Amino acid sequence: MARGAGTRTRILDVAQDAILAKGFEATSIEEIVANAEITRSGFFYHFKDKNALACALIERHIEVEDQIFDDLLGRAHELSDDPLQSALIGFKLLAELIEDMPGGHPGCIVATAAYQNRLFNKEVHAANRRAALGWRKRFRAMFDEIAAVYPPNDDVDLDHLADMVSGVIEGGIVMARAVGEPHLTSQQVLLLRSYVKLLFSPRLQ
User: What's the pLDDT at 107?
Assistant: First the structure.
């Protein structure tokens, strides 16, 4: 890795840890500079301001999340050709992944930026929206594939169902932190899995 790229990655890593712990507003450039062991000019060489930093963190988060879901859902498809069973396996793998995280899920940069939306410019807002809509598109495609084989047992909007996946994960992270129960997030994912199973499983005549 080039020296400049290594410094940029270190800044992002330090900033992400601090922001997930206490939010964007409470994380100063001075703190990031000190913990990354760089100068202020070194920070501003890579990021012109906190908005640019936020955009970079969101874009990196999208890439990481996409890779995680590609891997999990890819493994699920290898284990079952049936779209419903594949989705159920995928949710189980996701719950296990979150369960195995030391101290629970660390949080979501996209959600953190959304909570402090007023701090940011239109580029950050657009990046955050792109992340949310990307997840909607991914899970809507999965539910479309299931519904083509297993018509849902209730009248649901599949876009809303796709958004529910993100809502359950983000809500689980918030609840886990609020009550100090790290396992709560994975439990919420398993409840979502149960709902999807009930929604699409053929009813017995």
Answer: 84
Q: Are residues 163 and 100 in the same domain?
A: yes
Which among 65, 84, 63, 87 has a CA at the least distance from the CA of 75? 87
Counting as low any pLDDT under 70, the low residues of the chain are: 1-4, 204-205
pTM listed for this prediction = 0.89
Residue 65: HSE in the Cβ half-sphere, 13 Å Cα cutoff? 21
* Residues 110 and 58 sit within 8 Å (Cβ to Cβ): yes
Please list the alpha-helical segments (H only) found in 3-157. Answer: 3-22, 29-36, 40-46, 50-79, 83-99, 109-115, 122-149
* Cα–Cα distance measured from residue 130 to residue 30, given in angstroms and rounded to the nearest whole number: 29
d(CA 84, CA 196): 8
Q: Which domain, by its residues, includes 21?
A: 1-47
pLDDT digits (tens, 9 = 90+) for 92-139: 999 999 999 887 788 888 888 888 888 899 999 999 999 999 999 999
Per the structure, the count of domains in the chain is 2
